[in-house]
Amino acid sequence: MRAERRAGWLLSAPYAAFLLAFSAYPIVFALALVMMHWDLVTRPSFAGADNLTLLAQDARFWQAVGNTFVFLAIHVPLQIVTALVLALALNRPMWLRAFWRAAFFLPVVISGAVVAILWNALYATDVGLINAVLARVGVGPVPWLTDPLIAMPAIAIMVTWKNVGFYVIIYLAGLQYVPKSCQEAIELEGASAWQRFRHLTLPLLLPQTVLVVTLSTINGFQLFIEPYVMTGGGPLRRTFSVVLYMYTNAFSYQKMGYAATIGVALAVIIGAVVAIQRRLIGQAEAM
Amino acid sequence: MPSVTFDHVTKRFNDVTIVEDFNLQVADGELLVLVGGSGSGKSTILRLVAGLEAVTSGTIRLGDTDITERAPRDRDVAMVFQDYALYPHLSVRENLSLGLRIRRVPKEEVSRRVAWAVDMLGLTELLDRKPKQLSGGQRQRVAMGRAMVREPSAFLFDEPLSNLDAGLRAQMRMEIGALQRRLHTTTIYVTHDQVEAMTLGDRIVVLSSGRVQQIGKPIDLYRAPANRFVAGFIGSPPMNFIEGALEHADEMTWFVSDGMRIALAGVSAAGLTRREVTLGIRPDDLRMTFPSSGTAVEDGSIRGRVELVERLGGSSHMHVHAGSLHILAVVTALELPAVDDVIDLLILPQRVHVFAPDGQAIAIQG
Fold first, then answer.
1. Is B162's Cβ below 8 Å from some Cβ in A?
2. Co-location of B250 and B357 in the same domain
3. Is the pLDDT of residue A4 over 50?
4. Nearest-CA residue of chain A relative to B95?
5. ipTM of this complex
6. Is the Cβ of B102 closer than 8 Å to some Cβ of chain A?
């Protein structure tokens, strides 16, 4: 019994150490930093509520929050629709199905910075491939990353493209659990393809949709690498995300205490938004 | 209610023939049972009627209408699935009404039909429950209700009782039978269980490897099986088969096998020298006697050693070893032999069946 206990401790020790060092310690440290001034060079000094007061009054922070919500408002619905449509398509028997499934997953495993650089080229106003194609049909040129109103939607489209493969897998897994007999039953009852989707497939994919909404929201709030690489937060700070603003405070202005305060605030916002989403979805499910 | 007619229906999947040249008319209001083992093609035939599989050749008609090429939704048939196929996210009420709402049946009519089905099936208390909150029997009733509210031209049942335990299965079997007689809807019922087939069917179609073995009333299949497959499939416990030969001697035809012979009335063996056949005798058609020691076994009896006695209460199953033969007899005697006792089993000669080497039955009466 004692040997078993020792083995248990031993086996869980590496992960426990990892968790303590890279999750628990940073969380505690960040919480402590909220009440500190620290420039990474001199000794940290006690700041009291200075950082929180600053946060409440900081228009740039609240603009970053607003920008991030704009991003989410475009990204999350777009992510659900694209992932669902692709999953339905890839669930059918088709030529080279395994290849297509892998192809759509590929961007997920490519580095975000690489994708951002690639899309910078695609989005280029004068020489980009997207505008070249649009010009063929008489549209454009669209100033993708240089127009204050278009830049954030453009980034949202790109992030959706990058992550769609991951959510397709979630939906594909869900589709395997739609009983074949139920599909046949509803077909015999007279349902068209759209009615079969509307009355059977979509409701049965609700757990997957909850997961996609939650994960894409959490990921979306952490938007950073794309605006950092592609726009630097511009034009007119319209693509300045919360995490980009946090990063700028930490490593451009050396305000670690304030950066930590932004980070904690972001965690609270994410928690609140996801809780509200879950409640709304729960109500929809009960109806 | 229209009839369902199969005209030279064949179903092949790649090179494998699942159903071969199936011809049948299911009469208006009839309950027809398709019975067979796995791979017999019985479920495929049902799915061909539903339109869930396409026929390779031949036609299927509902009444006078050729439905062979129609989409499932345009066929006016309702199916009860083996796993019930209830929509897991919908309440009983919604499960019953969804199909009608999809077909844009007016609201009052939907309510009327749902109320009618719910009343008939005793589901009133369960209307707001989800399928996972129902027992197996209740789910089965909801599945039937969903088929009923459609008021279809034909019901298709695909092994509807195979997921229920034995007691419930017997009860639901009676309920389905009663319901079908009441609604008088043309019904095709698929099962692998010969007891279900015998008790439910107006007629039974016995299938094996995609081919019809015999079509007839349950009692006719039991009394006069057309071949050895049907003889072995219908009836429980199954028929005993004894390999042997027909011989002509003393102006009579005899079935002769290892250590036994029995005179068969009605089989003309004149001119026949010797013919390999199989004798079939049902376990219920054997009578047990205790031989006095030293006597030889009489004609028409099998002498053997008792291997196992299974007491079922009212009757008992006796497993008897006789030379190379293994014979099962159902006896109702109160006084049962012990294991290793020697007994005689008297064959009722008017109840035997004779099968040619190709499995076809040889008529022995008249």
1. no
2. yes
3. yes
4. A186
5. 0.83
6. yes
